[in-house]
From TrEMBL, chains A, B:
The lineage of its organism: Bacteria, Pseudomonadati, Pseudomonadota, Alphaproteobacteria, Rhodobacterales. It comes from the Bacteria. GO terms for molecular function: nucleotide binding. InterPro entries: Gfo/Idh/MocA-like_OxRdtase_N, Gfo/Idh/MocA_oxidrdct_glycsds, NAD(P)-bd_dom_sf. It holds the Pfam family GFO_IDH_MocA. This is D-galactose 1-dehydrogenase. Residues 23-131 form the Gfo/Idh/MocA-like oxidoreductase N-terminal domain.
Amino acid sequence: MTVTNIRGAGAGGVGRQLMSEPIALLGIGKIARDQHIPAIAASNAFALAATVSRSGGVDGVENHDDIAGLLTARPDIRAVSLCMPPVPRFDIAMAALAAGKHVMLEKPPGATVSEVLKLERLARAKGVTLFATWHSRHAAGVAQARAYLRDAQIKHVQIDWKEDVRRWHPGQDWIWQAGGLGVFDPGINALSIMTEILPNPVHLTGATLAFPENRDTPIAADLAFAGPAGMRVAAVFDWRQEGPQGWNITVDTTQGQLRLTDGGATLHIDGMAQKKDGLGEYPGLYHRFAELIEAGQSDVDVSPLQHVADAFLLGRRDVVEAFED
Amino acid sequence: MTVTNIRGAGAGGVGRQLMSEPIALLGIGKIARDQHIPAIAASNAFALAATVSRSGGVDGVENHDDIAGLLTARPDIRAVSLCMPPVPRFDIAMAALAAGKHVMLEKPPGATVSEVLKLERLARAKGVTLFATWHSRHAAGVAQARAYLRDAQIKHVQIDWKEDVRRWHPGQDWIWQAGGLGVFDPGINALSIMTEILPNPVHLTGATLAFPENRDTPIAADLAFAGPAGMRVAAVFDWRQEGPQGWNITVDTTQGQLRLTDGGATLHIDGMAQKKDGLGEYPGLYHRFAELIEAGQSDVDVSPLQHVADAFLLGRRDVVEAFED
């Protein structure tokens, strides 16, 4: 159970009112421009009222250099969404929570598990909503996959998350720096789906991580997990994939096969395509953030990041050829 | 808070009865022979009734080849203590808990954090005691250090854990294998003291891990943590220490300096030696295990292992010269 109550439901709700809640977006990089800004623009619950960026904000939107400037200038803004990489994000998240703001965190929610637990404690103490998002959980096939597996006897799960890093993460230096997760930056999306759809927790039993000799984070990883009654999960993350790209999860159960493709957006059960549902990934996240604020709840599930930390802890390191961007 | 109630206090207690509770010891290696067997021999609460070992048991004590043999032959034994390395320990711990045994785990409590959380869930479901031990927390200066720091304003903590791996871990191949933790095997003792004596949680902000080019685990590590109000912790773990060996923690506070040496066994405050207290490390652990069983409680604190996982996750990897045992 990752949802916790922070106060009486209904107080200060924003989800169902006619006026949109002003929200500030902090960290205006690729993910903010590609996903957050369009999702907020399409949202009935939120209106983009300010940004914090040192490298340029958004046309027509008030911009501040740092969180301190935002907090001073706009006490009326009660909700903030943090899109910068995890390493610089922690201090900003602490400052926002300390100022009594509702906070939404891009994935991964922290550079370490311990710091996410600190944010959770502070949010609880301040009585505000903390939402550690996992956007892939809102992909169009995930909720139905979870429902299908709820009572299934699962035999084996195969996760293949294979993409070309040059195509999907051009110039994102931070992903190669210590704490930037490397191939686990996309791979954690697969783990966030895995932990959402499997009815019982699994634990890592082995891992191999391939580090380019000139980089601090892995370019590929093989993981093995074990669950109840002999259930096994095998996961392959690879950033060296040329040609067809793939983000697929196949679950074999005693009653049939479930297959999530396109990062969770497409669901087949025994080869039959299922209807898509939900609002889509980032619109789904903002809808959920509004719901959590409305209900006086937080939603912080560290399990995907915990599995990544466990993989670094338990995994064997292989050094592979240098990677040049 | 790491202590949780598993059932009504007093049921099935062993701590204060006249007869000793039979206990089985599983994994008869160096730590079992050096510490566990003498501590059980000196304990009023427990009597060593059986062992599980494939490499030779203890003279005069019934030995079984595996946990299944023990469980079948000795249903009367309600408490087991697991001393094997973390990687092979999980399945054995699950089997013992599933059979309704009270379980005590050597440190670290698992090869991953997620598996410890699984053990905790199973212990709760079965209504038995799970005790994830941290022996250094029972060193003679730790309880007083915790009391001194409870209301202190801490400025800086310096941890130096420097020992010669050849002297202290001869032939322990598993510590060099993935999941064996390397220098974090002793270093986690320092982190277990740190998390015990500091009144507020800290989180890792940076780490450098030195991996010998022929090994899967680090031989040295530098860690930096941050706490409230600008408090900082610097930790240096090094297995390459020749000459004087040292396991020291120095805490500078606004009212004075606290210094734990000898792995926590000796405490100085402002240069004044303090009286030692407690039963000693392993006698203290068995006393506590009996208390937990008596009270119907579990004690599982993963925070030291969480910090190690965070260090592997966030840390920069340096490759250093090969290490030959």
